[in-house]
Each structure stands twice: as C-alpha cells, then as structure tokens.
Specification:
The complex is a heterodimer of chains A (189) and B (244).
Chain A: H1 5-13, H2 17-39, H3 42-58, H4 69-91, H5 98-107, H6 122-134, H7 137-148, H8 153-160, H9 164-186
Helix pairs in contact in A: 1-2, 2-3, 2-4, 3-4, 4-8, 6-9, 7-8, 7-9, 8-9
Chain B: H1 6-13, H2 21-27, H3 29-46, H4 57-69, H5 74-78, H6 81-107, H7 111-144, E1 154-155, H8 157-179, H9 183-201, E2 205-206, H10 208-221, H11 223-239
Antiparallel strand pairs in B: 1-2
Helix pairs in contact in B: 2-3, 6-7, 6-8, 7-8, 7-11, 8-9, 9-10, 9-11
The chains are: A mainly alpha (189), B mainly alpha (244).
C-alpha cells in the first residue's frame, strides 16, 4: 500500500531523504504543470519545480497538516511562479502589442462549428497566453488552480491565503477577462 | 423567471453551483446560449497545451535535487550556492597552504628528504588543482547552457559570484605551478583565469546578445575542453598513486 503524504512528510522531517524523494516523485509532474501554466515558459517551469522542492524541503518543519501536502506544495509553487513573473515583468515590458493583437485577431480564420472547434490554433494559443498575462497575480493563480488543476474554491483560498469569497471573485474576474479577450476569436460566425 | 448570473454560470461550469440550472437551460434559450458562449471560451482555455513530462519526471527532479537534500546534514548547507563556493574557496586555500608547507619543510632537510617530500607536495597541489578545475568546469558549463530560448535579460549573478571566488584560487594555483616549473598547468590556469575574469566583469544580468558573446568566448577559447582533458589527466595521475 502506498504511503500517505502525511506519513512521508513525517519521515522526511526526521531526516529520511527517501521519504522526501517519494514526495518529489509523486508531485513533480503536477508542480511542473502548474508552473508552466503560471509562467508559460518551459525553462522557467523547470526552475520553479527545483525551487519549489528546495523551499519545501527547507520549510518542511513549517508545514502544518491542516491542509494537504499537495495544497501546501502548490502554494509554494504558485508563489515561486509569481515571484518569477514579477521579476520578469520588472525587467522588460510585455512583448504583446495591442496593435499587433488586433491584427492577429483579424487574421484568425473563422472556425467551423463542431467538436473540431476545440482544436486550438497557434494564434488562439498566443491570444490566450497574452490574455493570461493580463490577469493580476491573484486572478491568474486562482484561475490556473481552479481551471487546470481542478482545485475547489476553498482549497484555492487556502493556497492564496485569502477568504473563500475573495478566491471565488478572483476566478470570476479571470474568467470575465478571458471571455473578453477570447470570445471574439472563438465565437461562431 | 430568475436568470442565473454570470457568476453562477461560471460556478456551474466548474461543478460548484448547487442551483438546478439544467432545468432552467431547457426552458430559457437566452441563458442556454450564454452558457454555451462561456463553455466555448473555457473549453478553449482548457486546450492550452503543456509540454508533457515523462512518467519518471519526479525521479529526474529528485536526481537534480539529491545533492542538496540528500541528507539533513552539513552537506545540505554546502549545496547552497554561497556556502558551496565559500567552502570550496576555503578548501582550495587550505590545500594550497598545505602544498606550500609541504614544500617549505621539504626544503630544509635537503637532499634525500627533499626528494622524498617533493612528490607529496606535488600530489597535494595536484588534488587541489583538480578540484579547482572541476568547479570551474561546472560554472562554465552552466554558463554555456544558460538562456536557451530566453527572450529577456538573463541573470548570471550566481555564475558570476562563483567565477569571482574561483579567480582568487586560480591566481594562487597559477603562481604556485609557475614557481614549481609546471608550465602546462600554469598556462591552462592563465587561460582559465582570463575567461573567469570576463565572466566576473560582465553585468549581473546580460542581454541575450551579451550572453551569446560570453558563451562564444568560452567556446572560442576551447577552455571547457582543455579543462576537461586536464582534469581527467589530473584524476588519472592522482589514481596512479604517489609515484609521480
């Protein structure tokens, strides 16, 4: 029977590196996915994975089992991602240009109705990436955790360290902004 | 008829709305259309691809982490950049001092004792230089692999600090090698020193162009290759024992 996260954490705290190894192996891919969706960059996501687990290891004694280990780890990963996004934004302006955006939207061909609508073109991906970059840090985190990770609102609130209602409204605002950006692209003719 | 709000539709999409909206959609075409619009956008977002990672990705991550977290002991702290290089510099200086001391004591008893002590001194120096070259190799290799696909400025602060630390020990090793008449080692350390100097003097965050120039400098000097070959030679000599 597979050891629970809590049991592995307890062993890792007592200095058992194999226990921490099992936590890394169990959560590595999820942390990468979260980091990539938060940053949109593979190299950054890899760095965030490393940083997340290093921080988790160093702060293992601070982990309280009130939330699941995964939730705690996602909180660290989300914060590492946000730190990196902040640094990146401070270093250079966004490369997204509004004029270029408008041109891009005009150049996107209409999609035929049907299931193939879900076949997202490269241009839609770019539009989506740009729209994601326009979200505030809290909105982006809340949306990524809710939409991609399937995390319930209450758990998202725990990750963000805010009230449930605030987390819910972050998701709402994110969806509203994405709708505004994406509806003209995905609307049927 | 009470129409659901956009917020309710969003919660419904995520399975967190408890109100029975399905029945409402059957009766209200307007809300049904509104929900479809929302669905289209959110389904599109859902299809944003994420690079796949192998099932053993966690194991790969662990391998990279292991040197840092392999045991809760001094090694963990030594794995942190600042401590690692401080410790490395300290060790290099200590080994160098030992090499000098070995030489110093070897010179007093003269003749046979001096001859016997010389290999010991060279051996200590050899180990210290080998360790120094290996650390230099790691820093230069890290720098050479940085920034692939990156558009913005790249932070090389970590490599820069490491290069600064290595510069000091490199100078001492070069001078010692030169005074011992070991020109091959002195020449290599001289070349290495120049490259390390360029790294140490570069800005802490470089543009992709500047990084490329730095990487070209490393590549043109062929320093990584030379260091690898030399380090290998040192390792072989070290393994061969004290009969150098």
């Amino acid at each position: 029977m597979e050891e629970t996260d809590s049991a592995a954490v307890a062993r890792a705290r007592s200095g058992d590196s194999d226990a921490f190894r099992s936590l890394v192996e169990r959560h590595g891919r999820n942390v990468f996915r979260l980091a990539f969706r938060m940053t949109g960059n593979e190299t950054d996501a890899e760095d965030i994975v490393q940083e997340t687990f290093l921080k988790a290891y160093k702060q293992l004694n601070r982990y309280e089992s009130r939330s699941s280990f995964g939730t705690w780890l996602y909180r660290i990963a989300a914060n590492c991602s946000l730190d990196l996004i902040r640094t990146r934004k401070a270093r250079h302006h966004s490369t997204v240009n509004n004029e270029e955006d408008r041109d891009l939207m005009q150049s996107i061909p209409s999609l035929e109705p049907g299931p193939d609508r879900l076949a997202v073109s490269k241009q839609i991906e770019q539009r989506l990436t740009a729209a994601m970059e326009e979200l505030s840090q809290q909105e982006r985190t809340a949306f990524v955790l809710r939409h991609f990770e399937g995390m319930p609102i209450e758990e998202i609130a725990s990750v963000l360290g805010v009230a449930g209602n605030a987390a819910k409204h972050s998701v709402f605002r994110a969806v509203q902004k994405l709708r505004k950006a994406l509806e003209p692209v995905v609307e049927p003719v | 008829m009470n129409h659901p709000s956009e917020e309710q539709l969003i919660l419904y999409y995520y399975g967190e709305e408890t109100a029975p909206l399905t029945a409402h959609f059957t009766a209200c075409e307007e809300c049904r259309d509104e929900y479809r619009k929302l669905q289209r956008v959110l389904n599109t977002a859902e299809c944003l691809p994420v690079p796949e990672r192998a099932p053993d990705y966690g194991t790969q991550v662990w391998k990279r982490l292991q040197p840092a977290v392999g045991g809760r002991s001094r090694r963990f702290w030594l794995a942190q950049p600042a401590w690692r290089y401080l410790a490395a510099s300290g060790m290099a200086t200590a080994l160098l001092a030992l090499a000098f001391l070995a030489g110093r004591y070897a010179q007093h008893p003269k003749s046979t004792a001096q001859i016997a002590a010389a290999p010991a001194r060279e051996r200590i120096l050899l180990v210290a230089v080998g360790d120094h070259l290996q650390r230099s190799q790691v820093v230069l290799a890290e720098l050479s692999n940085l920034g692939a696909g990156q558009k913005g400025r790249v932070d090389i602060g970590y490599e820069q600090r490491a290069a600064e630390d290595l510069l000091d020990s490199s100078r001492l090793f070069r001078m010692t090698a030169a005074s011992n008449g070991d020109n091959a080692t002195a020449n290599l350390l001289d070349e290495l020193e120049r490259v390390l100097l360029d790294v140490a003097h570069a800005p802490a965050d470089v543009s992709p162009g500047e990084l490329e120039q730095l990487q070209k400098r490393i590549s043109d000097a062929g320093i990584l290759f030379k260091v690898r070959v030399f380090a290998l030679r040192v390792e072989q000599q070290d393994n061969a024992g004290p009969t150098l």
